[in-house]
Design a protein that fits this description.
- Strand 1, helix 2 and strand 2 form a beta-alpha-beta unit.
- It contains 13 helices and 5 strands.
- By secondary structure, the protein is mainly alpha-helical.
- The strands form 2 sheets. The chain has a 3-stranded parallel sheet with strand order 1-2-3. It has a two-stranded parallel sheet with strand order 4-5.
- Bound molecules: adenosine-5'-triphosphate and magnesium ion.
- The site of adenosine-5'-triphosphate has 17 residues, from helix 2.
- The site of adenosine-5'-triphosphate (ATP) has 17 residues, from helix 2.
Length: 342
């Protein structure tokens, strides 16, 4: 698509006529139960607010900051898009990041307004850089790409978990600095608490969260597309605390409490009341398997329909990019003009 920008658009102020909320999912692995119960379902459950527009992005460019295989990234991107749609995300609010080149364009402009020390101070980067594996330069600058993702949309609100709080602060600092140095260009976003969802831990190691790229074997993750037999095996192998009692006590009984919390979340019940219904691990695990299988069944049915209709997914992608590029083009034009490129 070619972008035509009117002279008025290039000098206009940030839009911010609606409150816009941006959420991203990285295709670093397959979507799992933690993503669904912690982020996707609370988003679907939230009562739509008249003046809030939700934008959901498959953040494929962020998946390049770590070791990756190109073919796998391509198929994970398609799978993530289809899985989000299968969960019930509206086709008119979703797009794939790399389909909108303005993300990369604005990323560079923002890099030119970010200090090296500012980026190097980010706790996540420091932790990874201190580890044994080599880190990519893009891992240092990924919070700046995240700032570009947010500022591109004139997003006024960004739902962030604790792990992203520092990165959002960086986005605010960069936006404020750019506005002060070069004239008001960006809407300065503020963090909002996402609708509260469960925090699901790894079934094999309940001290770590269930995460796409944090598990080596994947045995502690339940993927949204896992078939019932596999769900049963993974739940059966889930570690327990070995005390025999079913209680909900995150501190002292992290393993069994995690299983209780997943069951409670699937059944939309309270974890303490859920724990009280069971006197043995075996019965808890049976009920958990059934609840997870029931939760995943409609998603998997819808996914099977979608994935066999490649034409439809292509259309969703193309339309998503077209919708976003209009606004993104205006933001980039404003930023280029302000910084002296136009
Ligand atoms: P990665 O390991 O690559 O960071 P991830 O599984 O953490 O992947 P993200 O794409 O980083 O997934 O996050 C997508 C959304 O899912 C975010 O809103 C994040 O807070 C939420 N989320 C991820 N893991 C969990 C979890 N275990 N419990 C609850 N919410 C989660
Ligand atoms: Mg994550």
């Amino acid at each position: 698509m070619t972008l035509t920008l009117s002279p008025h658009a290039t000098t206009s102020e940030p839009e911010a006529v609606v409150r816009r909320r941006l959420s991203g999912f990285k295709p670093t692995g397959r979507l799992h139960l933690g993503n669904y119960l912690g982020a996707i379902r609370p988003m679907l459950d939230a009562t739509p607010e008249a003046d809030v527009e939700s934008v959901i992005m498959v953040a494929d460019m962020h998946a390049l900051t770590v070791e990756h295989d190109p073919q796998r990234l391509r198929s994970l991107t398609a799978e993530t898009l289809a899985t989000l749609l299968a969960c019930g995300i509206d086709e008119t609010s979703i797009y794939v990041q790399s389909d909108v080149p303005e993300h990369a364009e604005l990323h560079y402009l923002l890099e030119c307004a970010t200090g090296y020390g500012e980026a190097a101070r980010m706790v996540q980067f420091r932790q990874r850089a201190a580890g044994p594996d080599p880190v990519r330069l893009s891992l240092l600058t990924y919070p700046v790409l995240m700032a570009a993702d947010i500022l591109l949309h004139d997003a006024s609100e960004v739902p962030v978990g604790d792990d992203q709080r520092q990165h959002l602060e960086l986005a605010r600092d960069v936006a404020n600095r750019f506005n002060t140095r070069y004239g008001r260009t960006f809407t300065v976003p503020r963090a909002v608490h996402p609708p509260v969802g469960a925090r699901i831990m790894d079934l094999a190691d309940p001290t770590g969260k269930m995460g796409k790229s944090s598990s080596l074997t994947g045995s502690g993750l339940i993927y949204l597309l896992d078939k019932p037999d596999l769900v049963r095996r993974k739940v059966a192998r889930a570690v327990t605390d070995g005390h025999g009692e079913v209680v909900y006590d995150r501190e002292r009984r992290p393993a069994i409490s995690n299983l209780v919390e997943i069951l409670a979340a699937c059944e939309r019940d309270d974890p303490v009341a859920t724990a009280a219904r069971f006197s043995s691990y075996v019965h808890l695990k049976e009920a958990l398997t059934e609840a997870v299988v029931d939760t995943l069944a409609p998603i998997q049915r819808r996914y099977a329909e979608l994935i066999n209709d490649g034409g439809y997914l292509d259309v969703v992608r193309r339309r998503g990019a077209e919708r976003v590029r209009d606004r993104a083009g205006r933001t980039v034009a404003r930023a280029k003009q302000a910084i002296g490129l136009h």
